[in-house]
Amino acid sequence: MSLTPQHPLSPGSTIGILGGGQLGRMLSLAASRLGFQCHIYDPQPAGPAAHVSRSETNTSYEDTEAVLGFAQSCDVVTYEFENVPALTAKTAANAKPLHPNAQVLTVAQDRLTEKTFIRDKANVPVALFESVDSIHDLKRAVKKLGLPAVLKTRRLGYDGKGQMIIKTEADITKAWTMMNDAPAILEQFIPFRREVSVVAARSLNGETAAYPLIENVHKNHILHKSTSPAQDDDGRAQALAINIMTALNYVGVMATEFFELEDGTLLVNEIAPRVHNSGHWTQDAACVDQFELHIRAIAGWPLGDTAPKHTVEMTNLIGDDVDHWKSLAEDPKTFLHLYGKRDVKPDRKMGHVNRIIG
Ligand code: ATP
Ligand code: MG
Question: Is 128-188 assigned to CATH 3.10.110.10?
């Protein structure tokens, strides 16, 4: 699809969002601040995004007629998760501008395609990796990369699911059995000093904007805490992220996750073609937040100011952490964001808090 509309989308226009979770909710809230309406597409009715949006369609992503009707009712279509089926994205893109474009999804849905693209098309370094489709491939890949190494499914992994660290030769067979014959990649294990990410945007005319570096700490494979601006931000990570976005002809907000080595080398772990949990701190940093930034980018608006006025620490409220909402609401330096999810489940992201620390 071409980069239409060329003109800024007028307030009152409708933005379609594929996916109806908390990211869709916060995108919809940001869009409404600018006078837009949102139409949510989510097989599950009455989710976090639909609560705060004008309309919703609740049909399977495979129902191309429903996807077409949804896209036709919108002025521009975007998505809040990267596993939008390829046909759904193409169907929407044939009717209305889809940002980020459908090729971005093809790249980001498959770790092999993603890492190959980042290394060869964007010329940005990633950890060494090998494609693995059999136990034979895995043994060969272990010989090549050495141990420890990480075996990951190519598709549909999140929060560390579908991956396993291989420490010794004895782990090889067990690891392959766990893959259940799913196509995989083996990646060198990176002894990183810290994990950092960049949240950046690219507009319809190629203008870019990036927030300062974010330092991330995970707990049980789920993001626990993000702090920004992180220490020692020399702008290198932002430049690498923007190289990837340019190579993808990207429009919207994208997150890039990095491993930082002891000597400062940056290796990309993965990209998320959407607003990202590590960018939630922007909501209370007194600049344009990542959700508004994404809406501005896909609507052809100027991107706005991404320079934060505060150092902010974001902590996720996972499962029954959310029970502390009353005491969190009492702290004057803490901003509470709840997603309106009815059922609390152990690993479910229920909300987050942003605490101003500087
Ligand atoms: P998420 O949904 O949190 O992004 P994911 O399932 O997409 O997770 P990755 O981002 O690939 O998986 O990995 C999750 C975490 O596992 C990383 O943030 C990092 O802490 C660790 N990890 C992944 N790959 C490696 C590696 N090659 N070397 C060292 N640690 C790794
Ligand atoms: Mg990740």
Answer: no
The reply to whether the predicted model has a pTM over 0.85 is yes
Ligand 1 neighbourhood includes 269 CB (under 6 angstroms): yes
Cβ(81) – ligand 1 distance below 6 Å:
no
| Any atom of ligand 1 within 6 Å of the Cβ of 158 | yes
**What pLDDT, in 10s, does the model give residues 101-159?**
999 999 999 999 999 999 999 999 999 999 999 999 999 999 999 999 999 999 987 77
CATH topology of domain 194-356: D-amino Acid Aminotransferase; Chain A, domain 1 (3.30.470)
- Torsion-angle region of residue 35: left (phi > 0), alpha (psi -120 to 50) or beta? left
Taking the CA of 187 as reference, the closest ligand is 1
Give phi and psi for 215, each to the nearest 5: -100, 130
Q: Whose CA is nearest to atom 24 of ligand 1?
A: 150
